[in-house]
Write a structure and sequence with these properties.
two-stranded antiparallel ribbon; mainly alpha; globular
């Protein structure tokens, strides 16, 4: 059975067929859970949540087309444009900050006519690609990480994190954490990694302490709320808009559905839990599908991480291995941040779960990233043919 599935994917799709299977499963499940979580939108119009479902389906179709396109492409070509694309993404973040619509207390979106997107997702993809290109050129001689290379890394990581943390602090942290992992795999000297960590951490503390940007006060409040919940082991449900109240609802959904799941489309907390289809989608998953669904999702992401990170071992190009590892860890880290927030294991961040949560921009850039991972997976040497004499 496994060989037939593998043969089908090898014929119609390019790249690691197990990654394709995981992506199909996660996206299909995401479509189902979003339709359920968005049921509360029925009050907004007679066509809801059907119209939202159709829109999501259309975006999903576009994302799979992009995934297939990039999986068949020569991923090495993206290295040539990575630095230029990174600078362009910085410019788009600035445009969003200065001229973008204010949504959720921050200017994160760029409107291009009928299309709007969040450039922070583009920065994440471009930075990983650019760093992978830089590090790949040093693998033959790791001692060549000199002062110029250090300044180059610090500039790219520092500018990317600073611009994004002004309006989206959690995404900035995610990008920085991924950059650190990529530096480790790229065999950057430990001293340089420590200096970059100290420099960017100091920058982040300064931004929050001095109240620079649009989200500094929100970051302070969320950290204080989380420390209060952990310290007192309680949540204050003072109002429906209080984030502690949202955590209470999330934990209630998990506790009532973990052992006795309510079943698909029967969540009760989706009607009152803010961002049930995105930030707190994991709570809805457990409420409807129980501990089985709650364990299946992280296991699938861990398998995805294993398949994507393996490229660093078998890829015949250093750039391919580093690119696949960086993109894979970025996707998986974001997924686990979403899950940890839902179970109150970290401050509220607003990070969607890739392939599961609602969000067109996230879905599109995640699809491009997975397409590149699949393209790298084609580097894997074919299995040796077993002969009758073997």
């Amino acid at each position: 059975m496994d060989s037939k599935i593998k043969a089908f994917f090898q014929e119609h799709l390019k790249g690691d067929y197990k990654i394709w299977l995981i992506v199909f499963i996660l996206n299909a499940f995401g479509l189902v859970i979003q339709f359920s979580a968005k049921a509360k939108l029925t009050m907004d119009g007679p066509l809801e949540p059907l119209s939202s479902f159709v829109k999501t389906l259309a975006i999903l179709g576009i994302s799979f087309y992009l995934m297939s396109y990039f999986s068949k492409s020569n991923y090495s070509r993206v290295a040539k444009f990575s630095d230029l694309a990174l600078i362009l993404s910085w410019g788009l973040v600035l445009i969003a900050l200065l001229f973008g619509p204010k949504i959720g207390g921050a200017n994160r979106w760029v409107n291009l006519g009928p299309i709007s997107f969040m450039p922070s997702d583009m920065v994440k993809l471009c930075l990983i690609t650019s760093l992978a290109k830089d590090f790949s050129s040093k693998q033959a001689d790791p001692e060549s990480y000199n002062y110029v290379m250090f300044i180059r890394m610090l500039f790219k990581i520092g500018i990317s994190c600073f611009l994004i943390m002004l309006s989206n602090f959690s995404t900035s942290v995610l990008i920085f954490f991924t950059s650190c992992i990529l530096m480790y795999f790229g065999r950057v000297p430990a001293k340089q990694i420590v200096l970059i960590v100290v420099a960017v951490a100091t920058l982040a503390i300064g931004v929050v302490t001095l109240g620079i940007g649009q989200r500094a006060q929100t970051v302070k409040t969320r950290i204080e709320n989380y420390a209060q919940r952990i310290g007192k082991n309680e949540t204050k449900a003072s109002s429906s808009k209080n984030e502690n109240y949202q955590i209470t609802l999330s934990l209630f959904a998990i506790s009532t559905g973990a052992i006795h799941p309510k079943g698909p489309g029967k969540s009760q907390q989706r009607f009152i839990l803010s961002q049930a289809e995105s930030d707190f989608v994991y709570a809805i998953i457990i409420e409807e599908y129980g501990i089985v669904g709650g364990l299946a999702i992280p296991i699938l992401f861990l398998i995805f991480m294993y398949r994507g990170a393996k490229a660093i071992q078998y890829s015949n190009k250093p750039f391919g291995g580093l690119l696949s590892a960086g993109l894979t860890f970025s996707i998986v880290f974001q997924a686990f941040i979403n899950m940890l927030v839902a179970v109150d294991a970290g401050p509220v961040t607003g990070q969607p779960m890739p392939m599961i949560s609602a969000g067109g921009t996230s879905l599109i850039f995640t699809a491009i990233s997975i397409g590149l991972i699949l393209a790298v997976s084609k580097d894997k040497d074919p299995e040796p043919v077993q002969t009758a004499l073997a």
